[in-house]
Design goal:
This protein has 998 residues and is of the alpha+beta class. 55% of the residues lie in helices and 15% in strands. The strands form four sheets. Strands 3, 4, 5, 6, 7, 8, 9 and 10 form an eight-stranded mixed β-sheet that branches. A hairpin with a 3-residue loop joins strand 3 and strand 4.
């Protein structure tokens, strides 16, 4: 019992050490679990939401649309739980100018169901549900009416679908129709699209680095009122996928098995079958057209023949009358009455030659008959020409049918191809990578501080330990006094750390995340396994340090332990050998130098602890500086143009005329901008058709006219880059990069995320969904957005193949108007404010789809999620620095109580004692800061390299002010600690402290 009481008394006396260990553990466990828990809660809530709304696991698209036969084939694939055929249509409407939207049919099989936020779901034809983004932009509300106009090429299918006849069972009847939706609409509900969780009212509404050039909304409509037997896509749910977390590798493996089966079995067969359906439908169309033409020609020929017969009868009647009159005259001249009677009773018989001569004479003598004959002959001639022309046209169509109908291509995509899904996953993964890195530093500092504190604690009880061992107490029992002390401090600190880690930090992160994404059903959850392992990790580290400290002392005999520890032998330090410096130092300066460098363990612990904390602060500020400069570097340095204007293809000419007439443009470059995807091409066939299998990135495909390739460098700074170490990249000379016809130039932000470099093969998807394998000629410095630059000639080579001739924008390579230049990059005159105002005014024009001012983007760009995490990291690092300095300072004082007492006996005033002790701590702190500043830059570079986020490349930047802030903050913490240490020095009693321990 006395042993226990003494142990508790010892614990109470060492309350400062207890608090230090508990605080370090609290901070470490909070960092270890907090960021992880916040990301995990977001992952889980999003996964539950996706499962509840039936977000598709696989989506199948086709260049020729999907038929019922395609849907039936997909249902037979092993591993497919559900298949839903989907119909959609592109429409336009007037909303401060021409805007576009996608009319999406709400599926009836439970897949991709929109989440109702307000109102009710549409049930009748003409009713729609819209997203909150549309409500915010349009100012409309539930009950408002809207009229839309279908786009001429709104279907995702090819032009040949207008003549196909597939009914889905390999029987062609020519009745397939593209989807069509009602045009007079009424808003009855506001919904959240599960494919896009971006929050239109939060931070994402103010950051447009991930948005495409086109304005787009989605309107959800019921099946009632939707016509058309051709489907734009098919969405699938995979068996067993819902049981896995959509963000885990196990889910990806489960889905990949099904996509591989589709690629390996169904895809090839259905592509051939669908093309044959199109060929059969085309042939049937030609056969029907020939039969209909033959019938019309036969009817026309019958009419001409009837008219000619009537004409001949009329002429023959006149011939007969003239022949009879001639015969009567001849008989009268013969004066034979009998002959006259005979002649009057019988029409004279004429031979064919005479009759034909009389016919021609009669027709020539009558203008009416002449005109009638000419009309009949002309009608016959025209009919013959029409027959020949029609037959020639039909034969030409028969010959051209196979070449005009391209090979059908299927594209099998998983959730990674969804921009909203990949953006959320990348954001959370990047933040989680920070959460995985920083706790390592906290753990190392915790072990170092625990070793320092517990070693001093054991050393202070050296004689007591010898006494207990001499009295027969086992070494384990004696060591348990310190092990239980450290364990209790770790458990209390860890318990508080779990509260902060699973409640405080996640709540803070989720508030920021909810400003970027809408995550219904979000709740905080506790992970017993991870939380327990988090505490166990720090318990093991601290106990290991405590055991090491105990073993170092208890391996001696009791007699040796009960004697005071011999003072460290005197030795020279390196500074003493530098005589010019040493001889000029004062007495206290020499003492301070000896104290710092002779006690190497204290030197290493103090400098290492301070350096680690300073490095964390610099690292956090480095990430903040990097993010803060992204907008300036991109929109002021890389983008040389001031304005980007995008229009619909049909309005491209009007848009250019409008901009030119305003007189604000000093120079411009017409380009074509399309929203597409870039996928790392596999080692096999580049046309595998599976997006996202090796990594995918949403891109802005920029085609440049062949005659103006050299002008691109005046609008965009072209600098080749190569990957470097520690967040750096090798940047080539400005202007040394040229766009040519041998490959595409890929933005650094996309290349870094996908591991693409010059010479790589990538798969590009253009705005029409056509894929092609392209060569990367160079990687261009780019920080925000994922631009891919391609020349007009190379674009035609990639997408004007036989697989792409049916798309709305692709033409023959021989066509001089293969591309419509739907965008303009322009330099403007005037101030930044006037340029921003001009861009806003352009968006109100009906011919302009999107107008972006670089000046506005540079000023408004911000990344709140990363800023929030950086603020959290800096705050925790500052707290750790304060605890470390407090622990080291108290340990330093406890080790030197007799020394301080001696100084007081020698006549030192309290202020002089303060200066004597604090000067050493300040020097060690300065040394730690000097070491921690470059270390922070090093760690910051490594962490930013790990942050591969969609459409962002973090070019590490640390401003001089950040170094100053980190150094000043650490020094300020050191001065703050002095306020706690000075009273301890004042309370040292020289008499009791100098008593002999023997």
């Amino acid at each position: 019992m006395a042993f226990v009481k003494d142990m508790l008394r010892m614990w109470a006396h060492s309350w400062k050490r207890f608090i230090s260990i508990a605080m370090i553990t609290l901070l470490g466990v909070a960092v270890l679990t907090g960021i992880y828990a916040g990301c995990r809660d977001a992952f889980r809530s999003t996964d539950r939401f996706f499962d509840a709304q039936g977000l598709h696991d696989v989506q199948v698209l086709s260049t020729a649309g999907l038929s019922n036969g395609d849907i039936a084939a997909l249902r037979k694939v092993n591993g497919v739980a559900k298949v839903q055929a989907e119909r959609s249509q592109e429409v336009t409407f007037d909303l401060d100018g021409r805007k576009s939207a996608t009319m999406q049919e709400i599926g009836t099989n439970g897949i991709d169901q929109p989440y109702l936020q307000e109102g009710r779901m549409p049930k009748k034809a003409g009713e729609i549900a819209v997203t909150r983004k549309f409500i915010r932009d349009s100012g409309k509300r539930i009950g408002s009416r809207l009229t839309v106009t279908p786009e001429s090429a709104s279907s995702d299918t090819s032009d040949t679908n207008d003549t196909n006849g597939a009914d889905g069972t390999n029987e062609t009847n020519g009745t397939d129709e593209a989807p069509s939706f009602p045009t007079k609409l009424t808003i009855v509900g506001v919904v959240l699209d599960p494919q896009n969780l971006s929050n239109p009212d939060g931070y994402s509404a103010m950051t447009s680095f991930r948005s495409t050039a086109a304005t787009d909304y989605t309107f959800f409509a019921p099946s009632d009122g939707v016509t058309g037997t051709l489907y734009t896509s098919a969405t699938l749910l995979v068996k067993g996928a819902a049981a896995e977390s959509t963000f885990d590798e196990s889910y990806e493996n489960t889905v990949k098995q099904v996509t591989d089966r589709i690629d390996g079995t169904v895809k090839t067969d259905r592509q051939k079958a669908r093309r044959q359906e199109l060929l059969d439908a085309g042939n049937k169309k030609i056969v029907d057209a020939r039969a209909e033409a033959d019938k019309k020609f036969a009817d026309a020929q019958s009419q001409i023949d009837a008219n000619r017969q009537q004409f001949n009868q009329q002429v023959d009647q006149i011939v007969s009358m003239q022949a009879g009159a001639a015969a009567a005259g001849a008989a009268a001249n013969g004066a034979n009455a009998g002959a006259v009677a005979a002649a009057g009773a019988t029409t004279p018989q004429l031979d064919e030659t005479t009759r034909e001569t009389m016919r021609e004479t009669i027709i020539a003598a009558s203008p009416e008959l002449t005109q009638a004959k000419q009309q009949l002959d002309q009608a016959q001639s025209q009919l013959n020409e029409q027959k020949a022309s029609t037959e020639q046209t039909l034969k030409t169509k028969e010959n051209e049918l196979k070449t005009s109908i391209p090979q059908v291509r299927w594209y099998v995509q998983d959730r990674q191809s969804l921009g909203g899904f990949s953006a959320l996953k990348s954001d959370l993964d990047s933040i989680q990578s920070l959460g995985n890195a920083f706790p390592i530093v906290f753990l190392l500092v915790a072990v170092m501080m625990s070793l320092t504190a517990m070693a001093r604690m054991v050393e202070e009880d050296r004689s007591l330990i010898g006494t207990y061992v001499g009295l027969g107490y086992g070494r384990l029992a004696v060591a348990s006094r310190y092990l239980l002390f450290a364990l209790l401090a770790c458990l209390i600190g860890g318990g508080l750390g779990l509260i902060a880690g699973f409640l405080g930090i996640p709540a803070f992160l989720l508030v920021v995340l909810q400003g970027m994404y809408v995550m219904p059903g979000l709740r905080l959850e506790y992970d017993w396994l991870y939380g327990s392992l988090g505490i166990a990790l720090f318990v093991v580290g601290v106990l290991a340090a405590t055991i090491y400290a105990c073993v170092q002392e208890m391996r001696m005999t009791p007699a040796a332990l009960m004697r005071p520890k011999a003072p460290r032998a005197g030795s020279r330090i390196l500074l003493e050998r530098i005589r010019p410096v040493w001889n000029r130092m004062g007495f206290l300066g020499k003492v301070t130098a000896r104290n710092i460098f002779r006690f190497k363990s204290r030197l290493i612990m103090t400098v290492g602890g301070v350096a680690g904390c300073t490095a964390l602060i610099v690292c956090g500020l480095a990430i903040n500086d990097t993010v803060a400069d992204l907008g300036i570097k991109q929109y002021r340095d890389i983008y040389q143009y001031d304005l980007m204007v995008v229009s619909d293809d049909s309005d491209a000419s009007a848009m250019r005329t409008k901009v030119a007439s305003d007189g604000r443009v000093t120079s411009s470059l017409d380009v074509r901008i399309e929203s597409g995807d870039l996928t790392v091409a596999g080692s096999g066939d580049g046309d595998s058709g599976k997006a996202g299998s090796s990594g995918s990135e949403s891109i802005q495909l920029v085609a440049v006219p062949e005659k103006h390739l050299s002008d691109l460098g005046e609008m965009v700074t072209l600098q080749p880059v190569s990957s470097g170490m520690l967040g750096t990249s090798g940047v080539g000379k400005t202007g040394s990069l040229k766009l040519d016809d041998d490959g595409v130039i890929v933005a650094q932000s996309a290349a870094s995320a996908l591991g693409v470099k010059a010479g790589s093969k990538v798969r590009l998807t253009n705005g029409d969904g056509v894929q092609a394998t392209a060569k990367v000629s160079a990687v261009n410095r780019n920080l925000i957005g994922s631009d891919v630059y391609v020349s007009e000639t190379y674009y035609a080579k990639l997408f004007d193949s036989k697989d792409a001739k049916n798309t709305k924008n692709s033409k023959s390579s021989e066509d001089s108007e293969a591309l419509t230049w739907n965008a303009m990059l322009a330099k403007l005159s005037g101030s930044d404010t006037s340029q921003t105002d001009y861009a806003e005014s352009l968006e109100e024009d009906s011919s302009v789809m999107k107008a972006v001012s670089c000046a506005h983007m540079a000023d408004s760009f911000k990344f709140d999620l990363m800023g929030a995490v950086v603020a959290l990291i800096v705050a925790l690092a500052g707290g750790l620095a304060l605890v470390v300095l407090f622990t080291l300072a108290n340990t330093n004082v406890s080790e030197r109580v007799r020394e301080m007492a001696t100084l007081k006996v020698l006549g030192f005033f309290d202020r002089e004692v303060h200066h004597y002790v604090n000067r050493e701590m300040m020097i060690l702190t300065v040394m730690g800061v000097i070491l921690g500043l470059p270390l922070g830059r090093l760690v910051g570079g490594m962490l930013t390299m790990a942050l591969n986020m969609p459409s962002l490349y973090f070019e590490v930047e640390v401003k001089p002010l950040s170094y100053v802030i980190a150094a000043v903050a650490t020094m300020a913490f050191a001065l703050l600690v002095q306020l706690f240490v000075n009273p301890v020095l004042d309370r040292i009693d020289p008499i009791s402290s100098l008593k002999s321990v023997e």
